[in-house]
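[audit] Reproducing an earlier prediction to check determinism. Same input, same settings, fresh worker. If the tokens differ from the archived copy the diff job will pick it up downstream; this log only records the rerun itself.
[audit] input (311 residues):
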Amino acid sequence: MKFPKTHTLKEIATIIATEYIGPDDFPVLGMNEIHVVEPGDIVFVDHPKYYDKALESAATIILINKKVDCPEGKALLISDDPFRDFNTLTLHFKPFQSSNTAISLSAKIGKNTIIQPNCFVGNNVTIGDNCIIHSNVSIYDDTIIGDHVTIHAGAILGASAFYYKNRPEGFDQLRSGGRVVIENNVDIGALCTIDKGVTADTIIGEGSKLDNQIQIGHDTVIGKKCLIASQVGIAGCVIIEDEVTIWGQVGITSGITIGKKAVISAKAGVSKSLEGHKSYFGIPADDFRSKYKEIAAIRKIPEILEKLKNL
């Protein structure tokens, strides 16, 4: 998430009432999670296990809960609770804006686009040309939709990320300030839910087709011309490359990559990154050849046990 203008380190420290290490006028351009940070961004870290990863990342401002040596060319914000202060910054720069109309006056709707009754279109939404938005679709603030997109009834674009910190008093949500971006020629089935990014974008690539009742988590990027069948659940921060086919009820864990033109059969459980140009099934998902060898070996177990019993 980029800020509307460049801020100084001192200004950011004042917003969250923290100490800082670095020049008062050190430039701060935005804030992002570790997997999408760029120079000028703030990243937060609150566990020693991840200190080095944050300090060595592309981020130039590290919101951290311990005074450490500051890498050259970077700055530190010293906080007793980086998670809380990251949320404070998100709410400061992306506060919730209520709406009192079904279609926000700030929304931009393209030529020949049809929006059926009972839809909600939030603040600063952009919808391209020749789209059809069917009834009871909710499109949250800042969503970007390209041309020739069809969204079927009951779909929800832009709900908050499912991302929580477990505290003694209960679960504390990491606030979402990102967006959903739907590229051209995408079809989204009925009752699909696509969560916005925490700080960046959840993206559905050009020409991809989603069946009904699919859940796509925050910051996931789906490539071009992907085909995803009903009841697939994709966690956050997943990268699905171009022309991947995913059949019904597949579950995909967070933070992995599915390679180009991979095919994942129904009800598979994907717990690790998968190479492209292969077909997969099973729990945990593996390529067909390996999985069939595994099944064949399992079927031999009774025979082996019978032989051992007769020794």
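[audit] rerun output stored. Observation attached for the diff report: The first helix runs from residue 9 to 16.
[audit] end
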